[in-house]
Design a protein that fits this description.
Helix content is about 20%, strand content about 40%. With about 200 residues, it is α+β, with helices and mostly antiparallel strands. Strands 1, 2, 5, 6, 8, 11 and 13 form a seven-stranded antiparallel β-sheet that branches. A six-stranded antiparallel β-sheet has the order 3-4-7-12-9-10, with no helix packed on it. A hairpin with a 2-residue loop joins β9 and β10. α1 packs antiparallel against α3. The longest helix is centred in the last third of the chain and has 21 residues. The two termini are about 15 Å apart.
């Protein structure tokens, strides 16, 4: 029993903190770049891009403040839907089985002070799906400044971010999930701890 209790304690340390996707670690080279098919522990279905604040404000003649600097994300090519799923279920914390929670995000117009406003989504909707069933949904009107969209209770396996239809854009930042992404140092400690416990058991045998 002691061995299992110790292993559980090590696993709890390795589970890490909740994940906040703020896109600030993406090198945009002062421009806009695709995040690619995965980012920060998630698979991404659809063309999600990250954009630098200075580039955005200069190119689109805006003065918007990003909730976290320097980047935000947007739906490239004005796609209607961007999906997030967990990349690798690791069996620790809330991440086992690919499940995660969503507690909210920040969102704004694509552009508010020039002709690009025509291409802005007027609303954003976030849906949570589990085993192919809709289990949570949250929507809000978009404005010139970032506002917070609340999430919903319960675990999901897919997070869908939707525009208001047609080819329209939104900006998002600080996507809050409860996926427990283990840090490399924590995983190393977990491996060493398990190895030590196995050696101890072998000696006793």
């Amino acid at each position: 029993m002691k061995i299992f209790a110790t292993m559980a304690a090590i696993a709890a340390v390795a589970a890490g903190n909740a994940a906040v996707l703020n896109f600030d670690d993406i090198n945009t080279n002062g421009s806009a770049v695709a995040t690619g098919p995965s980012y920060d522990g998630f698979n991404i279905a659809g063309d999600l891009f990250a954009m630098d604040k200075d580039y955005y404000n200069t190119f689109y003649s805006n003065q918007i403040q990003f909730p976290s600097a320097p980047n935000v994300a947007y739906n490239g090519y004005g796609e209607h839907e961007i999906d997030f799923t967990v990349t690798q279920p690791n069996g620790l914390g809330n991440n086992g089985g690919g499940l995660f929670g969503f507690s909210g995000l920040d969102a704004a117009f694509w552009a508010a002070s020039n002709s690009q406003q025509y291409y802005s989504s007027t609303t954003i909707t976030v849906e949570g799906w589990l085993n192919g069933n809709l289990v949570g949904s949250s929507s809000m009107e978009l404005g010139a400044n970032f506002a917070h969209l609340n999430g919903f209770a319960g675990q999901i396996d897919t997070l869908k971010i939707l525009n208001d239809g047609g080819v329209t854009w939104w900006l998002i930042d600080n996507v809050n999930t409860d996926v427990a992404v283990p840090e490399p140092t924590s995983m190393a400690a977990l491996g060493l701890g398990i190895a030590a416990l196995l050696r101890r058991r072998a000696k006793k045998a």
